[in-house]
Amino acid sequence: VTVADALMLALGVIAVGSGTLVVTSTHLVRAGLYLVISLGAIAGLYLVLGAELVAWVQVLVYVGAVVVLLLFAVMLTRAPIGPSTDLDRAPGPAVLIGAGVGFGLAALLADAFHWTRYDLPPTGTAERVGEQVFGAWVLPFEVLSILLLAALIGAIVLSRPDLGARLDPEAVEIPAGTPSPDPVAESAAVVARLERISARQDAAQARIRQAAADERAAAADGAGTADEEAAGRTTATLDPEVILKSKAADVVFGAQARRIRLGGDEPPEPGQGRDDVIEGTATETAPPARRSIEGTRAERPAIEGPPKSPAIEGQADDDQPALGDAGKKDDA
Amino acid sequence: MHVVIPYVIAALLFGLGVYGVLRRRNAILVLMAVELMLNAINLIFVAADSTIRSTLAGVQPEAWSHPAPEPRAGAIFALFVIVLAAAEVGVGLAIILQFYRVRNAIAIDDIALHEADDREPSDRVTT
User: Nearest-CA residue of chain B relative to A5?
Assistant: First the structure.
């Protein structure tokens, strides 16, 4: 047993072992990744056998392109992440025929070649293969390129249903109002997760808002404003820097609060004629959209600002965050 | 080098591919099994190219097929098979995705080989 034999045995064990996992795995994605291992081991076998160019083309085309294409198809068909139970048929005849073909061919080839030693040829370089391809095999090469072009055009035509479509008079007509499956509505877990994230963001906003209100109240106390009887006018005596900061905070968090919600609580307006919640809440300037935003905002615990600065609470509901009683009265 | 090793590996891989094609219901996994079979064929090509030539020493190659002194026909066939496999995967995946788009299924048991079989018996119109 030479070094080449040992290498081929090891690579063959890897190739056959991962090939077995390809045809028995219950995970679709794992089957694709085991196929990568198997094809890589076969590329190693090509290297040992002296076909260097074929080995690298194998790595480039098979491992690089074909497997990626297969994994894309796995994703596009919405394959489950976990194990699937409905991937296989009954194993009986498949095992029989597969084992028969595999071991039959193996026995045939082993009987034909026995344990004969052969000399390994010198490694074939790309130059020699290129001479052959463009010398003796140039006609099959060109035919093959035309075939590849035809296959690509065929794939494009197949995946575009509007090309070459003919009306089938006997076809079952799908009603026009049939809704397409919504990926969010398919999974309750996704909706629950989005709601959890939204609740966490609301809590963080409320905390920060409370802290800012407390700070502002402390600043107002420190300034010792005289006109406490005019409860709404305290902001006029505040430091302009504080006002700017609070405006900026309201812009930031107001934008955060007005973000698009998936699966909003309020049903959309019947006048819109759409059952898409995302579109309903995304348009801020429309009156129904603003109402729905206020509806979601009202759920969170209301921030009870200190009595000296009541203008702070509820300002994020406005389109233009304004500090001061004038803006608040306008909106009220 | 003992050439029986790559031959037996290729035979086992081909058997695995046959098993996968017969066993799997998912069309993408069927394509993966077909890839295994094509790779087994490639391995046979390359192994034959590397070894049989050493036993053909002294045999005059045909003039039209081997203008160059070092024929690598097996490797070239392997390259052609790789290109064919790429084309096959492209068209096959286009068919699978289109079928998934129309029927929302990917199991090849669900494919109706005759379009008339797909409908209810009451819907069939006998003309």
Answer: B1
Evaluate whether B72 touches B49 at the Cβ level (below 8 Å).
yes
- A147 class by beta-carbon count within 10 Å (0-12 exposed, 13-18 middle, 19+ buried): middle
Task: Record the pTM.
Answer: 0.60
DSSP-assigned beta bridge partners for residue A51: A124
Alpha carbon A40 to its chain's center: 27
Helices B4-23 and B27-55: crossing angle in degrees, nearest 10, is 160
Interface subset of B 26-55, CB within 8 angstroms of A:
26, 28-29, 31-33, 35-36, 39, 42-43, 46-47, 49-51, 53-55
Nearest CA in chain B to A129: B72
Tokens of A153: 């055009």
The span from the CA of A55 to the CA of B42, in Å, is: 11
- Which residue in chain B is spatially nearest to A99 when comparing CA positions? B15
Spatial contact of A309 and A234, defined as CB atoms under 8 Å apart: yes
Over the stretch A46-62, which tens digit does the pLDDT of each residue have?
999 888 889 999 999 99
* C-alpha to C-alpha distance for B2 and A115, rounded to whole angstroms: 6
pLDDT tens profile B107-118 = 888 777 776 554
Select from A5, A65, A10, A80 the least CA-distant residue to A35. A65
| Residue among B1, B23, B86 minimizing CB distance to A89 | B23
Q: What is the token pair recorded at A2? A: 């030479």
Contact A58/B42, CB-based, under 8 Å? yes
Q: By the CB < 8 Å criterion, does B81 face chain A?
A: no
Question: What count of other Cβ atoms lies within 10 Å of the Cβ of residue A260?
Answer: 12
**Consecutive H or E run containing A140:** helix A138-159
